[in-house]
Amino acid sequence: MRPYWLILVALFGLSVAQHNPHLKHGRTSIVHLFEWRWADIAAECERFLGPNGFGGIQISPPNEHIVLSSPWRPWWQRYQPIGYNLCSRSGTEAELRDMITRCNNVGVNVYVDVVINHMCGAGGGEGTHSSCGSWFSASKRDFPSVPYSVLDFNDNKCKTASGDIENYGDPYQVRDCRLVSLLDLALEKDYVRGKVADFMNTLIDMGVAGFRVDACKHMWPGDLQNAYGRLKDLNTKWFSGGSRPFIFQEVIDLGGEGISAADYTQLGRVTEFKYGAKLGTVIRKWNGEKLSYTRNWGEGWGFMSNNNALVFVDNHDNQRGHGAGGASIVTFWDPRLHKMAVGYMLAHPYGVTRVMSSFRWDRHFVNGKDQNDWMGPPSYSDGSTKPVPINPDQTCGDGWVCEHRWRQIKNMVIFRNVVNGQPHSNWWDNQSNQVAFGRGNRGFIVFNNDDWDLDVTLDTGMPGGTYCDVISGQKENGRCTGKQIQVGGDGRAHFKISNRDEDPFVAIHAESKL
Ligand code: AAO
């Protein structure tokens, strides 16, 4: 018989392993290519993400989903599964497989957004209006392509009058009832767990590195643990033997509900929603917040432990008023603040970082609510998604925002790789909104979010020399295209940042040295 402690060690090892994103070549960040077509992602891995040190991508749900006409092809139709066939708005199974292979070949991992809590909405109708054309009936709870039948849903378990979640304070409702009327799968059933695991294992065989698991708050941790336990190790064509899939779970926990993020952290990482909500408040200087208060950013702000956190400035929900975080969230619609917030996140050691890459839509506010928060990606009149064209200046066209290609953000992704493993060091602040910190002797960043100039000499902890600022420009052919920073033999350097600069921050790192 195995000693008890050995089993404990084995279990602990298993779950901790699911916290590891298996990023390659010292890379550190993930980018969410929201609603991109597989063909465009494959090209982006080869032409941009690989060469610029991006570690991985989160892709939109690849499985068969409902196709809706009212509203017209909303982005959120992909959060209403019809089955686990792999044809979606982003492309075919063959295109998905090709993309995963090509991204893996340039060292960029693929993380799949999996929707396993539910199928389509109860009012989803009956017919073949699904992305692979499979017939289904929402009212009969019949999804023959899986197959799931009326026996595989939680309708009998839920105790609310509407059958929907009515009170987030009641964990039973939140897990057993329908989230916004979405048909709630009975993940306590061996059969359902098996179907979910088969779906995820198919993706593991194709070479993905892990999963963003949607709506985890609405599933019992024990059911998830069972399903995750059925997952294979990653494909050894690209990952070393015994590598567990990286799991990051979407749990919105801003405090004050019966369910907390901590219920899930032993199973994998969890999305830290407090991070973007707080950082937005600080960068906007709301509620008396100041950048100088972020000296103890991370656990010191009440966030979950560093090893459990997946962090982001905004996500596909809260950039358009869905999910949680509220008005403080800084998105590409406020580009100057967004670049600063993303820069801060990428410079700071806390968490596994995810950068958002969005599409533009026609915002139309009535009484503070965006009437067009449903709008899908740039599309042709038949509803098919447009490719992502790349402009001569490397930005994207046709409504694709491509924040990840903005020089400041791309260069901070590289900064994070260069300083990986170095401690947070050499903090300085002016007790207001001017702050600076380093990462050991590998990098240093200075922010001026005050309404006056910054003009100060700071101890950077960096070796002496001339460095290119990677925000106003970068190092190119042995010279700086933007500001130049002189670090003396004593590690001290003079910084001048006008509050009117296009981007009021400066960053230097070991590889931006001339
Ligand atoms: C669509 C329609 C619905 C329709 C449904 C079915 O919009 O009207 O009933 O189809 O026909 C996405 C869209 C949904 C869409 C759905 C399916 O966002 O609009 O519904 O696809 O097509 C909760 C969940 C969280 C979820 C989030 C949106 O906990 O898991 O809602 N996010 C994921 C995805 C998301 C997707 C789904 C899940 C479903 O990222 O894209 O939905 O697959 C509180 C709770 C949160 C809760 C929010 C939502 O948050 O804590 O758990 O999130 O409420 O309202 C303060 C509080 C904060 C609170 C927040 C908002 O900030 O501090 O805790 O206020 O009240």
TrEMBL record:
<keyword id="KW-0326">Glycosidase</keyword>
<keyword id="KW-1015">Disulfide bond</keyword>
<feature type="domain" description="Glycosyl hydrolase family 13 catalytic">
    <location>
        <begin position="28"/>
        <end position="416"/>
    </location>
</feature>
<keyword id="KW-0119">Carbohydrate metabolism</keyword>
<protein>
    <recommendedName>
        <fullName>Alpha-amylase</fullName>
        <ecNumber>3.2.1.1</ecNumber>
    </recommendedName>
</protein>
<dbReference type="InterPro" id="IPR031319">
    <property type="entry name" value="A-amylase_C"/>
</dbReference>
<dbReference type="GO" id="GO:0004556">
    <property type="term" value="F:alpha-amylase activity"/>
</dbReference>
<keyword id="KW-0106">Calcium</keyword>
<keyword id="KW-0479">Metal-binding</keyword>
<comment type="similarity">
    <text>Belongs to the glycosyl hydrolase 13 family.</text>
</comment>
<keyword id="KW-0732">Signal</keyword>
<dbReference type="Pfam" id="PF00128">
    <property type="entry name" value="Alpha-amylase"/>
</dbReference>
<dbReference type="InterPro" id="IPR006048">
    <property type="entry name" value="A-amylase/branching_C"/>
</dbReference>
<dbReference type="InterPro" id="IPR013780">
    <property type="entry name" value="Glyco_hydro_b"/>
</dbReference>
<dbReference type="InterPro" id="IPR006047">
    <property type="entry name" value="GH13_cat_dom"/>
</dbReference>
<keyword id="KW-0868">Chloride</keyword>
<dbReference type="InterPro" id="IPR006046">
    <property type="entry name" value="Alpha_amylase"/>
</dbReference>
<dbReference type="GO" id="GO:0005975">
    <property type="term" value="P:carbohydrate metabolic process"/>
</dbReference>
<feature type="signal peptide">
    <location>
        <begin position="1"/>
        <end position="17"/>
    </location>
</feature>
<keyword id="KW-0378">Hydrolase</keyword>
<feature type="domain" description="Alpha-amylase C-terminal">
    <location>
        <begin position="425"/>
        <end position="513"/>
    </location>
</feature>
<dbReference type="InterPro" id="IPR017853">
    <property type="entry name" value="GH"/>
</dbReference>
<dbReference type="GO" id="GO:0046872">
    <property type="term" value="F:metal ion binding"/>
</dbReference>
<dbReference type="Pfam" id="PF02806">
    <property type="entry name" value="Alpha-amylase_C"/>
</dbReference>
